[in-house]
Amino acid sequence: MNVHVHLREKIPTFYTFSLLRLKKELLKMINYNNRTFKSIGNSENGEVSDETVFHYFQEGNIVWANYSGGQITKGTLIAKAAPNGVLEMVYQHINKDNEIRTGKCTSTPEVLPDGKVKLHESWQWTSGDFSEGNSVIIEV
């Protein structure tokens, strides 16, 4: 008796097509794990500068990073990654004035021709003056 059955023979064509499509979508997802970013632009009311370095990590759809440099002594962020790579995050850091600053941010990725990622960010402080801003960070 042959117990070896090909999976493809048992799955209707519709499901095979759907599984292949899902596989292609998963391959297009951005994986932020072990990527390093630097700022290339920020609003005047932001504290991130071109001296700030972000080290990103990812497990599943959970993304986190450590960052420091410039006016920031030490910072962390945590985010949920959507299937299209958009990050919804909260962040916190201690600046050079020893102030704790917190905020929220939506980061929209752009994959560059060389495969590196640029993040276009829309953020708002959730402490201090609660002002909003925009920034761009790029993978290095």
Describe the model.
With 140 residues, this protein is mainly β. 14% of the residues lie in helices and 51% in strands. The chain is built from two helices and eight strands, in the order ααββββββββ. The protein has helices at 7-10, 13-28; strands at residues 35-42, 53-59, 62-69, 72-81, 87-95, 100-111, 117-125, 132-139. It has an eight-stranded antiparallel beta barrel with strand order 1-2-3-4-5-6-7-8. The termini are far apart. Mean pLDDT is 89; it is low at 1-5.
Strand and helix map with partners:
Blueprint: H1 7-10, H2 13-28, E1 35-42, E2 53-59, E3 62-69, E4 72-81, E5 87-95, E6 100-111, E7 117-125, E8 132-139
Antiparallel strand pairs: 1-2, 1-8, 2-3, 3-4, 4-5, 5-6, 6-7, 7-8
Key terms for this structure?
8 strands, 8-stranded antiparallel barrel, mainly beta, globular, 140 residues
The overall pLDDT average reads 89
**Gap between N and C termini, in Å?**
57 Å
Q: Overall 3D geometry?
A: globular
DSSP helix fraction: 10-25%
SSE sequence, one letter per element: HHEEEEEEEE
Number of strands: 8
DSSP strand content: over 45%
Helix/strand/pairing class, anyone? mainly beta
Low-confidence stretches: 1-5
Largest sheet: 8 strands, antiparallel, barrel
* Spatial strand sequence of the major β-sheet: 1-2-3-4-5-6-7-8
> Radius of gyration from the CA trace?
20 Å
Summary?
14% of the residues lie in helices and 51% in strands.
